């Protein structure tokens, strides 16, 4: 028998999307979030067509499209010479080829659009300021004050819900640090493109930049190797960590270096991945998004995979018993996540190439037209979540 009520741990992108997706099937959700308020946490994100298609189905895309940017293209550029390496068209091309838009926005913009929809939905109840540290469903039912058919752990890399899933994946430091900051358009260097996503490539480091239209700023993410000990994604790096970051961009274009040197308030994000493990306990608890399969950001699909997870899980729960739905969910989603991990690993190798490998990369990419490179993304962007899993 399909479920009637679910508890969702975490009110981030995965949790809020799950609540809306469940409500679409008439399933009530109780959402528990330890924060007292959903504040502007994080930085920018890219919302690719496979995710925007779902957001449209859930009724939140129009709110996003009124404020976000739909970039003309995704560009690969040398971080030292600023020479263009390759590009993939977006904008109108994305709508025509993949059937949904490609946009960039602040994470808080997406979260607000989801939150507004959740707040307006009678089947969704949000509980803020509730720190959840549970070991079974009964304990959570006492907090909720009602029976719960299922618990969905959407509480990220450091998930508390892991304790309820034997063999759950464990976080593993990737060896990379993401430095995140923003630059106001009015003071941004001219090399930052106001209409596109740009990835500047270098040896063992890269920098991604794109406009956040609603903030009149550029979102910057600089990724280099480093050590990871903090679980706080809003920590400013210390002097030694900043110096290590700057060494990772040695030999880059001088204007990029000046921009990095001036950002004393950049936040220090050690990047963690999830090891292989079970996503559910076989009966009443399941993990989604980063709690199940956090991955490196080299494919820009972290938020999209959380959105896909939530939408597909809800559809399976609407027509199957919990045990059947959870088994099918893991079986259906695991191959796609694995393939995206491979893509992210390949992108990391390509972005951080040096010496002869870098020269070969640039030559190969320069010989391929943009439409050919776009075809490589079809399996990601054309994906239609919820289409009859086996």
UniProtKB/TrEMBL annotation:
UniProt cofactor(s): FAD
InterPro entries registered for this protein in UniProt: FAD-bd, FAD-dep_Monooxygenase_BioMet, FAD/NAD-bd_sf
Signal sequence, start to end: none
Listed GO MF terms: FAD binding; salicylate 1-monooxygenase activity
Keywords of the record: FAD, Flavoprotein, Monooxygenase, Oxidoreductase
EC number: 1.14.13.1
Gene3D superfamilies associated with the record: FAD/NAD(P)-binding domain
Residue ranges of domain FAD-binding in the record: 6-342
Name by which UniProt lists this protein: Salicylate hydroxylase
């Amino acid at each position: 028998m399909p479920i009637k009520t679910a508890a969702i741990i975490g009110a981030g992108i995965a949790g809020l999307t799950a609540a809306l997706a469940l409500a679409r099937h008439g399933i009530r959700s109780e959402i528990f979030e330890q924060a007292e308020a959903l504040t502007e946490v994080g930085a920018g994100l890219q919302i690719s067509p496979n995710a925007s298609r779902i957001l449209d189905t859930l009724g939140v895309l129009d709110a996003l499209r009124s404020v976000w940017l739909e970039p003309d293209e995704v560009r690969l550029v040398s971080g030292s010479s600023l020479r263009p390496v390759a590009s993939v068209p977006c904008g109108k091309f994305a709508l025509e080829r993949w059937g949904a838009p490609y946009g960039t926005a602040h994470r808080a913009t997406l979260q607000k659009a989801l939150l507004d929809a959740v707040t307006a939905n009678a089947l969704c109840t949000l509980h803020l300021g509730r720190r959840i540290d549970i070991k079974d469903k009964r304990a959570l039912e006492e907090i909720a004050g009602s029976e719960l058919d299922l618990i969905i752990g959407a509480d990220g890399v450091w998930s508390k819900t892991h304790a309820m899933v034997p063999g759950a994946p464990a976080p593993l430091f990737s060896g990379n640090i993401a430095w995140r900051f923003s630059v106001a358009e009015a003071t941004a260097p001219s090399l930052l493109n106001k209409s596109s996503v740009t990835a500047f490539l270098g040896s063992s480091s890269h920098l991604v930049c794109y406009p956040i239209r609603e903030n009149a700023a550029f979102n910057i993410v600089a990724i280099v190797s480093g050590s990871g000990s903090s679980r706080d994604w809003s920590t400013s790096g210390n002097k030694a960590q900043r110096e290590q970051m700057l060494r990772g961009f040695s030999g880059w274009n001088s204007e990029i270096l000046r921009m990095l040197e001036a950002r004393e308030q950049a936040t220090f994000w050690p990047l963690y991945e999830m090891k292989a493990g079970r996503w559910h306990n076989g009966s009443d608890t399941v993990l989604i998004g980063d709690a199940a399969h956090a991955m490196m950001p080299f494919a820009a699909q972290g938020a999209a995979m959380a959105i896909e997870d939530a939408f597909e899980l809800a559809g399976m729960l609407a027509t199957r018993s919990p045990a059947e739905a959870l088994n099918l969910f893991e079986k259906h989603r695991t191959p796609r996540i694995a393939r995206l991990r491979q893509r992210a690993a390949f992108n990391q190798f390509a972005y951080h190439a040096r010496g002869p490998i870098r020269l070969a990369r640039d030559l190969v990419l320069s010989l391929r037209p943009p439409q050919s490179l776009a075809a490589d993304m079809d399996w990601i962007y054309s994906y239609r979540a919820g289409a009859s899993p086996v």
